[in-house]
Design brief:
Blueprint (H helix, E strand, L loop, with lengths): L2 E5 L3 H13 L3 E5 L2 H11 L5 E5 L1 E2 L2 E2 H11 L4 E5 L4 H9 L4 E4 L4 H14 L7 E3 L2 E4 L4 E4 L2 E3 L3 H11 L5 E2 L1 H7 L10 H15 L9 E4 L3 E4 L2
Parallel strand pairs: 1-2, 1-3, 3-6, 6-7
Antiparallel strand pairs: 4-5, 8-9, 9-10, 10-11, 12-14, 13-14
Helix pairs in contact: 2-3, 6-8
Length: 225
């Protein structure tokens, strides 16, 4: 599971983006400024696989932070910024950044860029697996006993959430919170019921007697044992 260092001074962006990345199977360490990020890198650089850096930071800027990180370790870096001008793009890449994406961005585009950079560094995310199910995070493909399953984007995210929390009871409220779509699509209680039913129909040999997604009455759902 790839570990991302996220650096942005906007706490709402950090919260939403961290949740989204975790739903996609990443570990995330978030910080809000240059000095905090450098401290993490100096103390535990070996645990990170990629850094997402905002250009505008309260105690410096992403360009200076990029230079500092690259001087400590060869960590892949993607810039996140509202500035899409040519100078910023060129400056970031000249400093050693591996990619650059302007806000607002589509979440799926960001995930694609992250996986592309990780593959270049030989750091593709390890698949999530359980009893014949396998989610290949780098390709966004799910198979059961070697056969590919056709899942919608929300079904895929819901399955990753379950696979990342095997044996843990997830309440409906937590599932609803976790499935908040950063693009603005809100998942309500009725929608959640429909998508769990659809996911069971695609995963289970007998959806009426589920072996993967089990209902824990009054509590929520549990994936696996």
């Amino acid at each position: 599971m790839s570990h991302i260092l996220l650096v942005d001074d906007d706490k709402s962006i950090v919260a939403n983006l961290s949740d989204f990345l975790r739903q996609e199977g990443f570990l995330v360490t978030a910080c809000y400024g240059q000095s905090e990020a450098i401290q993490h890198i100096e103390q535990q650089s070996g645990i990170f696989d990629l850094a997402l850096l905002d250009v505008s930071l309260p105690d410096g800027n992403g360009f200076a932070l990029c230079q500092a990180i690259k001087s400590i370790c060869p960590l892949p870096i993607i810039f996140l910024t509202a500035s899409g001008d040519e100078y910023s793009v060129v400056a970031g890449l000249d400093l050693g950044a591996d990619d650059y994406i302007a806000k607002p961005f589509r979440p799926r585009e960001l995930i694609s860029r992250i996986h592309s950079v990780l593959r270049r560094y030989g750091k593709g995310s390890a698949p999530l697996e359980y009893r014949g199910l396998k989610a290949d995070l780098s390709r966004g493909i799910v198979t059961k006993n070697g056969r590919e399953l056709v899942l919608s984007a929300l079904e895929y995210r819901l399955l990753l959430l379950f696979l990342s929390n095997k044996g843990v009871i997830l309440s409906r409220n937590r599932l609803l919170d976790e499935l908040w779509d950063m693009a603005g699509e809100f998942v309500n209680d009725n929608t959640l019921t429909v998508y769990i039913k659809r996911l069971r129909e695609k995963l289970e040999d007998d959806p009426a007697q589920p072996e993967y997604i089990k209902t824990m009455r009054g509590l929520g759902y549990k994936f696996g044992e």
